[in-house]
Design a protein that fits this description.
The protein is α+β, with helices and mostly antiparallel strands and 365 residues long. It has two domains: 2-231, AhpD-like (Up-down Bundle), CATH 1.20.1290.10; 245-361, Jelly Rolls (Sandwich). 43% of the residues lie in helices and 17% in strands. The chain has helices at residues 19-22, 29-44, 47-59, 64-73, 75-78, 80-100, 119-131, 141-155, 163-174, 181-193, 198-210, 214-227, 235-238, 358-361; strands at residues 245-246, 254-255, 258-264, 269-274, 279-280, 283-286, 289-297, 299-303, 309-311, 316-319, 325-329, 335-342, 349-352. The chain is elongated.
Length: 365
């Protein structure tokens, strides 16, 4: 369902039912950090990391009811298998905490719904508020009904999480999934409509970084940049190629931030992600040919004394041995390229040289 769950615009009125309470986060900042980690690791199906986040969240004052409700809700976005496995992880954590004598707050379950409750009516109101306008998925009326009556009706009507809580959870989870950027951007806007403040929204990627979810945080930041700040370049976040971890070992040879994902340690195949404006210094490969294959975004490759060559998806560069060169992203675009060495000789090495000056880089269009 999550593939079409959100195709919405921004702005909108607030929900009338339990208006103040349901449009405010019930978590403090520490609890929100762990709830984001719980939701994101559920989406990634990383159950070891999920168990740790659940434990730390319970220690920070999250209740069993809140975590159980979050993991249940996420079946609508990540599927029943992940949701059920995550609930099983929660059970194991609770059993272990009980055996160790750790205090765990159960929390309150959702209140019973009134006899007059109308799931379709309530869900339509919630969906309209979240999207900022009436939304009808006419292409598939059955899906439209499930969204309104079940997801935004039956699930959102349960008051052991507020509507703001639920959107924080959804944004955090979708940040852990690849190729759902339209839905992530829509929920970023929806979170603001549901009462999550701009500061609280921008704290989500901060929270994900704090627990080591670097690529997921970058994906969330890109969605916020596009949906809230109006920036158009989210190509790297939408790419199926992994962003990897901050390229700290070589940071001294780069202007701007780059990220490294080792895809095959045996062959040395890596994916390097460059943020807009990031480029490496002039350098030379001795005893090897470097292969570059651009897979997303837009950037540049240049050999000493020659014009710069655009890098776009599908561009393949064989960097000759001993040739001085540099490569990096365009000023207004992320860029990712695969890289590995061919014809490598024993004792091959890299020689790092001077940075590419701003004056030279800024001439590239």
């Amino acid at each position: 369902m999550f593939a079409v769950a959100m195709m919405f615009a921004s702005c909108g009125s607030k929900i009338t039912t339990m208006e103040k309470e349901m449009n405010t986060l019930s978590f403090n900042q520490e609890q929100a950090t762990f709830m984001s980690a719980i939701a994101c690791n559920e989406a990634k199906a990383d159950y070891a990391a999920l168990a740790q986040a659940i434990n730390e969240g319970l220690d920070a004052g999250l209740t069993v009811s809140q975590i159980k409700e979050a993991l249940s809700q996420l079946y609508a976005y990540t599927g029943f298998p992940r949701s059920l496995n995550a609930l099983g992880t929660l059970q194991k954590v609770l059993e272990q905490r009980n055996a160790e004598g750790k205090a765990t707050e159960e929390g309150m379950d959702a209140s019973p719904l009134p006899a007059s409750y109308d799931a379709l009516k309530q869900g339509t109101e919630v969906q309209t508020t979240l999207s900022g306008r009436p939304f009808n998925y006419d292409f598939c009326p059955a899906e439209d009904y499930y969204l309104k009556a079940h997801l935004f009706g039956d699930i959102f009507a349960r008051d052991n999480l507020t509507h703001a809580d639920r959107e924080l959870i959804t944004v955090s989870a979708l940040s852990g999934l690849e190729n759902v950027m339209p839905q992530l951007q829509a929920h970023v806007r929806g979170a603001l409509n549901m009462g999550v403040t701009d500061e609280q929204l921008r704290d989500i990627p901060v929270a994900l970084k704090a627990v080591g979810l670097q690529a997921e945080a970058l994906r969330c930041e890109a969605a916020i940049a596009a949906a809230v700040d109006g920036k158009s370049d989210v190509v790297c976040a939408q790419s199926p190629w992994p962003i990897g971890e901050p390229n700290t070992a070589y940071a001294q040879y780069f202007i701007g931030n780059s990220y490294l994902a080792v895809l095959d340690p045996a062959s040395g195949l890596c994916n390097v992600s460059f943020e807009p404006g990031c480029r490496n210094n002039w350098h030379v490969h001795h005893g090897a040919v470097q292969m570059l294959i651009c897979v997303s975004g837009r950037g540049w490759y240049q050999e000493w004394g020659k014009e710069a060559v655009p890098l776009v998806p599908g561009t393949v560069i064989a960097v000759p041995e001993g040739v001085k060169h540099w490569h990096g992203a365009a000023k207004d675009s992320w860029m990712q390229h695969l890289t590995y060495h061919a014809n490598a000789q024993p004792g091959n090495s890299n020689e790092w040289l001077e940075p590419v000056s701003d004056e030279q880089y800024d001439t590239l269009k």
